[in-house]
Structure formats: structure tokens, C-alpha cells
Amino acid sequence: MKKIFLSRILFYITIFLLMTELPASADQAAWVLKADADKAVQMIDPGIEIRTFCQPCGETSWTSVIVNQVELKNSSGQYFQVFINGQGVDLAYCYINKDGKWKNIAIILGLDVSGVSEFIIDEGTPGSSIHKTAIMWDDELNRVYGLLRSKLKPEAQKALKNSQLAWIKYRDLEFENIDNIYSNFQGTMYSPMRIDHRNQLIKQRVTELQSYLDLFDNY
């Protein structure tokens, strides 16, 4: 009898743990307050493109969705869900083009989400080698920057942050310059050349930060 009782207890504990783990990789901002849902609907006009990208789900590339219809549906309580083309969406995994960058809608709204990037890289076709290379260098930059920052004292961390913010502004301006230059040329060969030119810019920054990191590793 005791064994049966203990087995049931373990069973319910397991179910509870599984349920508490689900939100981290599933619903984060699927059901939100009406004020936030209304703001999301105002952003998502019919005819525009949004991109879905669920990193906690293990996705490695985004999916393009052309919005034909957008609406709200109410749950049994005070929460609402945004439906795009008849399908309920989680705003934590939806990105919209804002000021030329694909930005996470949940983050724009100030919602508490985790495990998702604020931006997705608009480089090449999802899954292509060009796209994977762009993501690789962006991830490597974040990795090296984080490692270097962890080795610095507070004042040096502040200086590094200011330097990185200044570099990001330079990067964005240089990206615009690269795009404008390559817009003068027609032909399929120029698109990968343009993207490679942009990737080289990030690679240079990675190399620069890595050289600082090597000083600590070799000290």
C-alpha cells in the first residue's frame, strides 16, 4: 500500500515539474493583457511581413509570414491572444521590421520573456550557408565580448561597453554604406558579396576583442 502511495506521489511530482518547465520553451507571451495585445495589433498591419523564430524550441532560422488578417481572441479571464491568419501566435517568438531591423515584438512591448534574441539577422535565405555564417559571427561576437567583460573590473567593463556601443553605431552606418554601394550592381553574384563584406566587418571586431582576451589568457 505504501509503495502504491509513494508511486502516486512521485507521479504527481513529475507531472508538476514537467508543467512548470513548459513555459520556458513554449508559451511566454501567447496570452497577454488587453492593453499589450492592442498595441501588438496596432503594429501588425495586414499586408506586412512578420518573422517567427522560436529559439527555445530549437529553431535555427526564422520563418516569413505575410499578414492577411490580424485579430484578438479573449480567454476566460483578462488575457488576450493575437491571431495572425487565423493562428494564435506567441509574441515572444514574433519579429517585426522596425527602423530597418527585425525586432522582437514582446521586447518592444516590454513583456518579460527569456531565451529569445532582441533582433534577428536579416542576412541571406534562412538555412543557407550565407545566413548561417552571419549568425555564426554574430554569436561569436557576443561570446567573445561576454568573456572579455567577465575578466574586467567595473570601470574597465564600463569602458568596454561604451566602446562596443560606439562600434555598433559605426557598424550600422557601415552596413548602410555597404548596402548603398552594392545597390549599384545587378546580378546574383553581388548579393553574397555584399553579405560577405558585412560579415568581414563583424569578423574584424571579433578578432580585435579576441586579441584583448588573449592577453588575459596568456598572462
How would you describe this structure to a colleague?
Residues 1-26 form the signal peptide. InterPro entries: LprI-like_N (IPR009739). The protein is α+β, with helices and mostly antiparallel strands and 219 residues long. The chain has helices at residues 2-25, 34-43, 105-108, 129-150, 154-182, 190-217, and strands at residues 32-33, 49-52, 63-66, 70-74, 79-84, 87-88, 94-98, 101-104, 119-120. The strands form 2 sheets. The protein has a 5-stranded antiparallel β-sheet with strand order 3-2-7-8-9. A hairpin with a 2-residue loop joins strand 5 and strand 6 (87-88). The chain has 6 helices and 9 strands.
Helical content band: 40-55%
Query: Distance between the terminal alpha carbons, to the nearest Å?
Result: 64 Å
Low-confidence stretches: 10-25
- Which H/E pattern describes the elements? HEHEEEEEEEHEHHH
Shape estimate: globular
Residue-averaged pLDDT: 82
What is the count of β-strands?
9
How does the major sheet shape up? Answer: 5 strands, antiparallel
**How much strand content do the residues show?**
15-25%
What is the count of DSSP helices, taking H or I runs of 4+ residues?
6
Using the CA coordinates, give the radius of gyration. Answer: 22 Å
Order of strands across the biggest sheet?
Answer: 3-2-7-8-9
Structural class: alpha+beta
Pfam families: LprI
Organism: Desulfonema limicola
Domain Lysozyme inhibitor LprI-like N-terminal: 136-209
Keywords: Signal
